[in-house]
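Data card: per-record layout.
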Amino acid sequence: MYPPIHFQEHSIERLQALVEQFPLATILMPCSQSDLNNICQVPVLYEPSRNVFIAHVAKHNPLTQCDKQSVKLLFSGDNCYLSPSYSNNKTLPSWLYSSVQVTAKVDVIKSDNEKEKIMRQLTTYFEQPFKPMWSIDEVPKNHREAMYQQLSFIEFTPTHWSGNFKLSQNKSPEVRASIKQSLELANKRSIAKLFQA
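The structure for this 197-residue chain is written out next.
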């Protein structure tokens, strides 16, 4: 079984927290010209209350051809090299990482009101760290409407979540505590926080 069961993450709260912290999704979608997938990267915002992701892409993005189809959203969290020195030589060299995969149905938004609403949600959310926050209202309405003609707005409805958190769960609590402490001392606090007791 892959990933091994001890690296599988099933807590929806932990999966959603990683998606919130790392919102850039690599999206795999069907490709009619090949057995392989088309791939694009899109920042998305998850709305837990409605259980949907929202996003916008350029209107010529192949994702816009996937209306009513399923795609896979891949989210990569923090990652780093694991040195044996982090565990007093009780592990081999390895790599720590966290990722979330979401299978979701695509819904391309047609309503102008919904497009405006999505743009406002996205900009309000992603502008939060900036002071002062930029507002979409700084763009005149007729310019916004022209801009929206060049974009496609999308909702993704999740049908399946899974996580792969490779954080030395197959090691003893003592070894994991040593690794966590070493990560914190190396200023790799983001990945250290993922370690559970």
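Known properties of this structure: The chain is about 25% helix and 35% strand. The mean pLDDT is 93.

See the next section for split statistics.
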